[in-house]
Amino acid sequence: MHKQGHFGLGLLSTSVLTLLLLEGGFFLWAPLIGLAGIAGGLTPDIDNKQIVPFKHHGWTHTVVFGLFISAIISGCLFGVFHAAIRLTSGTTFAITSPPLLGNLALAILLYVGTLAGFLSHLFGDTLSTAGGTLLIRPWKPISNNHVRIGVTTAGNPVYNLAFFLLGVISHILPYYVYL
Ligand SMILES: [Zn+2]
After folding, report:
1. Residue 59 has pLDDT above 90, yes or no
2. Which residue has the higher pLDDT, 92 or 52?
3. Ligand 1 centre and the CA of 114: distance in Å?
4. Domain boundaries of the chain, sorted by first residue
5. Looking at the predicted structure, is the pLDDT value of residue 101 above 90?
6. Residue 135's pLDDT is what?
7. Helix (H, G, I), strand (E, B) or coil at 114
8. Rounded to the nearest whole angstrom, what is the distance from the C-alpha of residue 16 to the centroid of ligand 1?
9. How remote is the CA of residue 128 from the centroid of ligand 1, in Å?
10. pLDDT digit string (tens) for 133-155?
11. Which of 137, 146, 170, 174 could form a disulfide with 19 if both were Cys (CB 3.0 to 4.6 A apart)?
12. CB under 8 Å to 20, separation ≥6 — which residues?
């Protein structure tokens, strides 16, 4: 799957959380969780960059890496949220800091959202019919077994566009209903 499809899947993976947060009145948290899903959903393909010392569809496409990198990404998003609280303090757009338990809940939700996005990427790549070194082996280092659902080519424009649109719509609808 290409970036467009992974973007959509990342959004799809956090759409239920977004809906629940909007229903609960957490209007600032909801878009953050969507961002976490997108970030997690796009992260595995950093192995396309030359500075990353892993082969494509290697270690960055494993659950172990997802558990690790999701902590870093969600920690960064948590930091950005608190930076926004400080920056807006005293202005008309002031964001109030949640209480301790609220902060803990936000940190957990950001981690869950990022990991959901990450896992949605692995799912998207298993749909590809590609074989050989492009096979996804998500259980490494515990098992070297690959996972392939194999229903389309990675670049299939219909699948990519369909997931992109589904993801975007799955977020627009809750905002439309609750805002
Ligand atoms: Zn990938």
Report:
1. yes
2. 92
3. 15
4. 3-178
5. yes
6. 95
7. helix
8. 23
9. 10
10. 999 999 999 999 999 999 999 99
11. 174
12. none
Give 128's strand partners: 152
Q: State in Å: Cα 3 to ligand 1 middle.
A: 9
List Cα–Cα distances, 139 to 46, 48, 72, 133, 151, in angstroms. Answer: 19, 20, 20, 15, 21
Question: What is the structure's pLDDT at 51?
Answer: 83
Q: Does the pTM exceed 0.85?
A: yes
* pLDDT at position 62 over 90: yes
CA of 100 to the centre of ligand 1 (A): 36
- Residue-wise DSSP of 35-85: HHHHHHHHGGGGGGSTTS-S-TTSGGGSHHHHHHHHHHHHHHHHHHHHHHH
| Cα distance between residue 10 and residue 60, in whole Å | 16
SS3 158: helix
Distance 6 CA to ligand 1 centre (A): 8
Q: How far apart are CA 92 and CA 145, in angstroms?
A: 55
Interval between CA 82 and ligand 1 midpoint (Å): 31
